[in-house]
Amino acid sequence: MKAKKMMALLLTAAMGMSALTGCGGGNGKESEEGKGADKKGKDVVTALLPPVSATYQDKITEYVKAFNEEHPDVEIEVTTASWEDTTQKLDVQVNAGSPPDIAFIGSDGVTKYLDMGMAVDISQYLSEEQMKDFDENVLGYFKNGDGLYGLPAYCEVQCIGGNREFLEKAGIDWKSVQQNGWTYDEFREAIKKGVVEENGATKTYGFLFACSGVTAKDYFSIFVKNAGFPSPFNEDLKYTYTDPKMVDFLEDLRAMIDDGSMPKELGAIDAGKRWNMMLTGQTMITGKGLSSFERSAANNNEMLKNGDADAVEGSIPVDYIVLPVPVFEGGTQNAYGAVDGYICLTGEKKPDEEHLKNVAEAAYYLASAERAAETCQELYLKPICESGRTAYEALPPIENKNEDNTKTVESLTKQIVPARPDIPAELGAKAIKIEDEVIVPKFQGLLAGEVTPEEMHQAIVDAAKEVFGEDGYVAE
């Protein structure tokens, strides 16, 4: 382990977490050699899992119980946490050199843990049939070089979404936008039309985006795909965000705030407030947008209809419409695909081969068949593994699904930027470091009007020069 990890161990060793044991108990104690057996002699596989869908953390108990019954010598032991707490707890455990065997993360984090020496190549522990179960293009997001370090749970297009009534009042042909997309200039003019002023104050914004907490980088990361930056690295493995055209992109993002189409306090809007503002009619279009928001809006509509006190206070009926991200000058139509799933990890105590095989088996179980089908249906997504699609067909169909949204998501899924397993883990980890330490804080400053586009770009250039060297980034 690196020296900084050993220092972190001293600071974080006392920090622990409670675990939800799937079935029949077992304390998951580790042996001197590494991961070991519990009191009943079972091999314990630990997993840290966020609320992947609305009922995922409720269902995980029965999923784990079934696995443990089918594998009498293995016990999956699960810890559940919120999305933000999952990230924090994982960082604590990683820094302490004792991560869980399985953690649910975004695939863009694979290179980070691979560079730290903690990601496990599970390709050698899975059968050919298990590997072929997954769509190859999506599986590639958990690959690096020749290694496979986890399994995808779903592929979610992260885009934007609007209130149908407000879109139509503003004269926006949303069906045409779904089918043909729109340019930045068209989008900018559209959201201006969505602004509603009342008594000298803005009652409804044309557009807003969650930019606080775990969503701090989403606005930048999702939109940049359509601005000529499909990846932080080009095919020559040079860092791309230093390109001078980044300044134009940042100016465009800031302009929508200056127009009055977006709230000035974007940096203070988290995911919960973003959705609350959508349901209470405070914005025409919101981001990031997910397929499952259609269901969330429909559920709240039903509660309003029935006079249910659980409906969002002050909310109005919302017919949620999936919309693509606009294309900026010099960019092409791409989609940001959030491929999340189960990464397999190991710590300072190296486990034996039998344990690693059990970890891979547990990861495959969680990512496939009924588990994949039920999770994806709740997220309004189609499974990305054959066993999941088979199980999906046996589920009761979704009632009152907006087919225009379904077709749009399917179309955008085909536009997702291909995986880049060719990017070495070391480079990927360095890009993540620049993102966390430079891009996110500078972008927050840009949104607040404290940093100019030129200043943010220069900060990225300075960081890239230091991290990648003079020849490691795009200068023109």
UniProtKB/TrEMBL annotation:
Spell out the SUPFAM superfamilies in the cross-references: Periplasmic binding protein-like II (SSF53850)
* Residues spanning the signal sequence: 1-21
Keywords in UniProt for this one? Cell membrane, Lipoprotein, Membrane, Palmitate, Signal
Q: Which InterPro entries match?
A: Bact_solute-bd_prot1, SBP
> Is the keyword Mitochondrion in the record?
no
Q: What is this protein called?
A: Extracellular solute-binding protein
Q: Which organism is it from?
A: Blautia hansenii (Ruminococcus hansenii)
